[in-house]
Amino acid sequence: MPIIEANRLTKVYKIPEKEPGVAGAIKALFRPRFTSKPAVSDVSFVVEPGEIVGYIGVNGAGKSTTIKMLTGVLVPTSGEVRVIGRDPHRDRVANARDVGVVFGQRSQLWWDLALIESLMMVGRIYEVPEARFKQLIDEFSETLDLKDLLKIPIRNMSLGQKMRAELAATLIHEPKVVYLDEPTIGLDLLVKERIREFIKQVNREKETTVILTTHDLGDIEELCKRVLIIDNGGLIYDGPLATIKDRFGKYREITFETAAEVNGLEVPESADLLEKSERRLVLRFDRTKTSASRVAAAIMSQLEVCDLSLKEPDLSHIVKQIYHGGLKESTLPPVDAIMTPVLSPAGSGR
Amino acid sequence: MVATFKRSWRIYGGMAAVVPKLFMAYSIWVWMELFVSIIAVVIFVAFWRAVYASTTTLGGLTLDQTLNYILLAQIFSDAANVSSVIYDFGAGLREGQIIHALLRPLDYQIALYVQNVVQLVINMILRIPLALFIWIVYGLTLPADPVIWGAFACSLLLGHAVLFCFDWILGCTAFYSTEIWGMSVVRYAVAMFFSGALIPLDMMPDWLRVIATILPFSQVVYLPVSLLSGITPVSDMPRIWLIQIGFLIVLFFLSRFIFRRAVRVITVQGG
Amino acid sequence: MTALPRYGSLYWLFVKNRIKILLEYRVNFLIGATSTIFMQAAGLLAVWVVMNQIPNLDGWSLPEILLIFGLITLAKSINHMFADNLWTLGRDYVRTGTFDRFLVRPVNPLFHLLADRFCHDGIGNFLVGLALVLVAAPQLGIVWDVPAIAYLALMVISGGFIFIALNLITSVSGFWLMDSVPVTRVIFEMHEFAKYPLTIYPRAIGALLTLLIPYGFASFYPASYLLGRNVAPALAWGAPLVAVFLLSIAMGVWRFGLKHYSSTGT
After folding, report:
1. Which of A325, A326, C85, C155 could form a disulfide with A342 if both were Cys (CB 3.0 to 4.6 A apart)?
2. C265 shares contact with chain A (CB less than 8 Å)
């Protein structure tokens, strides 16, 4: 029984059009005009209990809009969503009891209160029985190392401490589903590790389903077996992380600045030409099949190179590559992955 | 000589120019304030008319005289109530921002005073819609003699300067007590009554009138407005000015003295 | 119906929270509570000075004026204590996205918004109002038996809810405007009329404060009734009905605002 079902979720924002100046403002008052801005288009997916799913996309792709619809904060323009069998908007209170949300850096704790006081408030709001509350505090003191933090107010905590506190507050009512929005942003590596460990442990011990939105690929690699990628409002990938890494994580980009114009270039093995302009070359090579030095050597033997730079794949790259890959590669995806039709390079066709 | 003046003008003028820009950002609030002021005016007029329903004079004033005074006081009472000096200065003094100000090539107090005068002028301009409302709905009896207007303007500026120095001293105390808000609340309430904005000093019992005369608040509302509204005859002008100038001199030197002391404490203690 | 005791104890918890937070800033706590007293004092002093020198104000004696003052201040203080957070909706909750947090907790979002900030300044107002009524009471020639006191309490509470309802109706604009304060302030400021007997104003204003922005039901009509003056029963007893009526409008407006928020997610 899936714990989350999203079926053709669509959200279209109506942005009021306003011409500049006083005349425009008056016009807007009497004859308001709206442009439709689709933020999420026709997104469907299913999550089983106990999964940790990564939800990635560039800023503005529709991530937070989707999460808002899943949490019931936003009403979809069309399509439907079921969380634990309920409509999260209509059955808001029942849904709230079973769900926990970390809204990025917007802490739900009270700024001036000692952590333990904040947690008690949250516990009372969610009606956590006192005995169970005490047990969980002890548990979290261990797993999140909160023992010394309990008497400190949030305003005096470092970023890492704040996030640990936030996780305790989010899980104190033992929700079945947890939405984590950028839980490790701005944290140093050690703290990130500890937080990832904690999430894994909670998922393991309590079968908590986790939806993780993040820009940090380290989070994804550590935690998620499955990844959803949203771009321009549409789901362009839904499948195992392994497939992405196999297919796209192995590419690197190398950019050359040449002394003279490039004419007649022989592209080295296992590399593709991505861009060619007057004095610039951008190549993509398969890291598993060749190396940066070999590609650079091959190019430099043909041209005089002034400068070169190597780019590690980041999220936007992977997404871009998925486009390119989707066009070029005609091999069918594995059975358990859903590759939704890729958008044409010119832009959104939805 | 001319060069120094020009330079000072440019520097102080530059500082003052910031103030209008800040204020224009709050236009919807200006409308709200106007509406709130209109409500207050309507209440005042109704109140005083009801008062005079059972008597012909009060404190030696007739209904018309009182209404004229009260309406004019409503237009000009801002000068007594709006004082950012305490906050800007007091808070800045405490947080050590004063150090930066002292490093600048101008006199901090004069600079803030100029800013304050500009603020006063802006406030007066923003009161014009209210003044128009009052003039149209209730009518005002204004003096024809330009001398009276001149006397009024001088008295207002003098009173404003007196109040500025007074607030400057209050601002200095903020450094020692760290509790500005409470003090400014009390000052606001005291000013509201003793400035004469609510009732003219003529109507106060003797003991209250004495207090009102000693405190500087009445200098910025009652003294100028009573001149303008005709309660105080023009012949009293020189006497009034002398009093105000006297206040100003005393408070000016006092404020500079206390300021120097406060600054010394900061620089010795290191902020 | 189990919701009521739960919300009751939850609210008490929020209040304790707020007090703990405020005591962090110890002196401010006291100043906040007393600041309102000072503000009122200036106006009251002026009224007292004037009334001492005249027989009455359009037929109303000083104690009678103080009764009206006291009633409106008591009603106002209820709004001040319990509903002061409403005006921050746009600026502190919608604009920052903090409001989403309310939607994700198993508590009514309006309750959460109100409970998030119990305003102790209002206690000062309450004390001023109470003091005025107590000072005026013995001088009014009213028999203060249980029915009279019950009537007074009922009127004050209803008046309080009238304030809260009008506050809520205007504050919902916070879902659209970042700063709803001007809207709320304009309506709120009309209560100043109700500090005095409505008879001193032009008829239009009396009508305004009875039919449209009914602050008159919080002070003038109850006072008139208690003082044995000529008041239509509908006006003397209308406050609770007006309060219920306005509150239902306010709740409808609130739900409308919530719906808008859920569909545009601003």
Report:
1. A326
2. yes
